Amino acid sequence: MFAPSLVVVNEYFDKKRSVALGLSSAGSSVGAFVVPHLMEFLFDQFGYSGGLLVLGAITYNGCVSGALYRPLDKPVTPNPAAMVTAPTSDGGQAADVVVVGTRSRLRRVAIAVDGLFDFSVWRDWRFAVFAVSQGLCLMCLETSTFALSSIAVTDVIGRLLSGFVFDHPSVRDRRYCPFSFSMLLVSILMLWWPFVDSPLAIFISAAVYGAGFGVIMAQRSNILRDLMGIERFSSAFGMMVFAQGIGVFLGPLLAGE
Predict the structure, then answer these.
(1) CA–CA distances in Å: residue 229 to residues 10, 114, 118
(2) Which residues are CB-neighbours of 251 under 8 A, at least 6 positions away?
(3) Three-state DSSP class for 97?
């Protein structure tokens, strides 16, 4: 549900796209803070299997939200003349010879598959740099429980405020600047964190990190659409999430956990 929801929001909104992305992504940070405690409660009350069943039932409600998404343009109804008959040598008719319908269906399937796996987006150096940076950003997303609360709070604040800031007339055409600043800030904090030993400094660093990370997570699809355009956005976003998955997979391995 995560990736399609961001793609749909980017297609639905234009003028207030940053605000819409900030509001829609704020729920994920709240869920990241609430769901672990909810899972612990469900496992204590209903056991492992029962807790997973209840959690699955709660997650299944996402189908209701997905059903609310509607295409902006009315889908084109295929031509019902899918069956074509051809006269035979004896003057008869070849029954139910599928010509036009089969070709059109195969063509639609080929176009859909090509759109899902459009590796040509990696030829654009801007997308390559952007996707790799997002993968490296999530590679270091490992925090202690002490800093989790401050990160969760400032993450929500960063996501919400970024929408209004990025849609401001003076920032809209240069919103890659605050986004790049947030990336730089998060990178500096990651490098500085190993040298911090004071609990107060860790708490403050985590709060600043959460705000910057919230801006990145809320507005990355917005920046990606500005770079690639709406036509190639779906494929580019899928490839970016793929790069992030590699970062999440390699992060704990490189950290030795």
Answers:
(1) 10, 17, 14
(2) 138, 139, 140, 141, 142
(3) strand
Q: Is residue 62 within 8 Å of residue 196, measured between CB atoms?
A: no
Residue type (1 letter), 243: A
SS (H, E, C) 178-193: HHHHHHHHHHHHHHHH
pLDDT tens by residue, 77-94: 655 554 444 454 544 444
3-state DSSP assignment of residue 94: strand
Chain centroid to Cα 242, Å, comes to 10
Give the pLDDT confidence score for residue 97 in this predicted structure.
47
Token pair belonging to 100: 């036009």
Would you give the DSSP letter of residue 91? S
* HSE-CB of 18 using CA atoms within 13 angstroms: 24
Helix (H) or strand (E) holding 83: strand 83-87
In angstroms, the CA 49 to CA 240 distance is: 34
Structure tokens at 207: 């709060």
The pTM of the full predicted model, rounded to 2 decimals, is: 0.69
Chain position carrying tokens 């970024």: 162
Residue with tokens 């939200």: 65
Per-residue pLDDT tens over the stretch 57-66: 888 888 887 7
Which neighbouring-strand residues pair with 87? Answer: 93
Containing H/E element for 54?
helix 17-60
By CB neighbour count within 10 A (0-12 exposed, 13-18 middle, 19+ buried), where does 109 fall? exposed
97 sits in the region (left: phi over 0; alpha: psi -120 to 50; else beta) called beta
